[in-house]
Amino acid sequence: MASGPKPRDAAGYDANVTAACERTLLTLLGAFGNLKNTLRLVGGLVPRYLTPEAPPDVPAHVGTSDVDVVLNLQVIAEGEGYAALADQLTARGFRRFVNAEGRSSSWRWIRQIDAQMAVLVEFLRDAGDEQPGRVVTIDGERVSALAMKHAGIVNEWFESREITAPLLDGRGTSTEIVRFADVPAFVVLKALALDDRIENKDAADLIHVIRYAGSLDQVADMFVRRIHSSQHGAAITAGLTALRRRFCDDEHGPGHEKAGAICYARFHVADGDDDRLLREQRFASGLIEALLDRISAAESCGTSSER
Questions:
Q1: C-alpha torsion sign, points 42, 44, 48, 51
Q2: How far apart are CA 41 and CA 59, in angstroms?
Q3: Residue 275: is it exposed, middle or buried by C-beta count within 10 angstroms (0-12/13-18/19+)?
Q4: Which of 3, 5, 29, 94 has a CA between 20 and 30 Å from the CA of residue 104?
Q5: pTM value?
Q6: Taking phi first (over 0 means left), then psi (-120 to 50 degrees means alpha), and beta for anything else, what does residue 150 get?
Q7: Integer angstrom CA distances of residue 267 from 55, 136, 272
């Protein structure tokens, strides 16, 4: 059941659920009609596209159990952009998520896949100067989006890929262009999420992307190019600071004992093997330290790492 608590280790994820999330995403895009190009995919489905499986060098990402999309704040501000969205969602089988207390949510929607499986969809938007966590309506009172700090970086920092998958309810196979967070945007947003909630899956996702999106020099270069773009400087600073705080050596202790490194290790080592846990903690800490060192060195030289 994709709408329940997120699994705490890799064994809790299933390729069939991830495939259902992809089908849900393509079905969701249809509900947005000519505004589908304003959606940006973030969250745990993104590594599937940033780091496509290519054995033996790039293993399959563990997957996800939900779909997170960022809505464009400018389109929301124009007022009419997402009008009647609730009707379109309902027509495609989505319904508002109802929590254990019986309260329905307008920013979380659920799509039943079969008798055993449902996929949760969360609508997000950039917080801007407002408090993160605030909900803003975009279709009367029926649909809303949750404010997320720096989520708006994906409006400019994204990649796109043509995806083909069966739509839900036997509506046939569809091909859509999916726009998703690029490597720097994904790592920044995941680092901020990890910093806030200390979840194993957040650490595992960002380490997977950093490890397999290219060589470490190439990944560092992606960040440096974004830094030199002079866009979203506060987001980059916040994301890199969060990485350092959760993975790296400092006056508070060694990096492998930081929460991020431990989250990563526990996601991949569920049997409690202390030696394996320590190896994975050291690996995660070392990878982040090396990335940040490369970014810092390239910035000091005033150039990207490949020049």
A1: positive
A2: 21
A3: exposed
A4: 29
A5: 0.94
A6: left
A7: 21, 33, 11
Whose CA is closest to 152, among 70, 39, 82? Answer: 70
**Separation of alpha carbons 188 and 182, rounded Å:** 10
- Computed over every residue of the chain, the mean pLDDT equals 92
Angle 264-250-278 (CA atoms, 0-180°, nearest 5)?
Answer: 35
Does residue 289 contact residue 244 with C-beta atoms inside 8 Å?
no
Burial class (CB in 10 A: 0-12, 13-18, 19+), 214: middle
Nearest to 167 by CA among 18, 23, 41, 3: 23
pLDDT at residue 77 greater than cutoff 70:
no
Extents of the domains making up the chain: 10-181, 183-301
Report residue 4's pLDDT band, with 50, 70 and 90 as the boundaries. low
Strand partners, 135: 146
Taking residue 104's Cβ as centre, other Cβ atoms within 10 Å add up to 11
